[in-house]
Amino acid sequence: MNAPSPSQPSLLEHAEQSISVGSKSFAAAARLFDPATRRSAVMLYAWCRHCDDVIDGQVLGFDAQAVPADEHRRRLGRLYEQTRAAYAGMAMSEPAFAAFQEVARRHAIPQRDAFDHLEGFAMDVQGQIYQTLDDTLRYCYHVAGVVGLMMARVMGVHDEATLDRACDLGIAFQLTNIARDIVEDAQAGRCYLPRQWLHELHIAPEQVAEGANREALAVLSRRLVALAEPYYMSASAGIARLPLRSAWAVGTARNVYRQIGVRVDKLGAQAWDARVSTSKADKLRLVLQGGISALSARGVDWPPRDPQLFQRPSGRPDPQDRGL
Fold this sequence. Notes:
Oligomer: single chain
Shape: globular
Structural class: mainly alpha
Mean pLDDT: 89
Number of domains: 2
């Protein structure tokens, strides 16, 4: 891999910019990793952020632009091609893919993890309809649960039980995101709420964003926040098995995202008047709590993972070729 010229940012600098703008919540937690783990974690984030931006026509998670269906499919196909090329050892001109190639090599991230993540973007491009909660959870796995798997591998996790807990944390994060972004997603023509839930409260899918539905949406967002809780609890057992600094970082991220869900729950019908986030003071408090929980979790006799939680797919061979 060629070194950057003096005028070009390094892969790490590019990744640092991506995370500082794209996710202030994860950026705060990532500072707690040891330097080597932090490098890989933020570069993995940069690839995930890049793929999301390419599909949604946005920059670092903002200013999404309408993308025609044919262009959506072309962009998705290109992401598959670049990912295959990265695993084949080809030179990467796109910084996010060069960063991902380095991380995938260093930590032996399976191809199936990367392609499972791209499958989440394919679900968006194909206009997937989520009829049941299981459908929504499957989406959560692809866009966030498998990111938890890859991040865990970056932290040196190899055992399947801890990887399951890492996947649970990603799913908890995504359930929180869906609750926070119900209206914003609906305005962009997407709805990740199970159609069965909408039918129960007599909400037409195309009318989710309408103001008259806010009280009903508050019922559904509270349901999502409550649904995320056992996944957050399950993740705590996995955090206890991480190296201490990684446990501190992941525990902090868990606390920050969970707090967003708590705020959405409390705000009720006002949860979508402005984007819910955590303040700097909140983040500092949650960083301290993350350190305390990382230490205290080590002395807990954690129960077995709840078999009722979504179970990630496993035992499949790495895909040699995947496309539309």
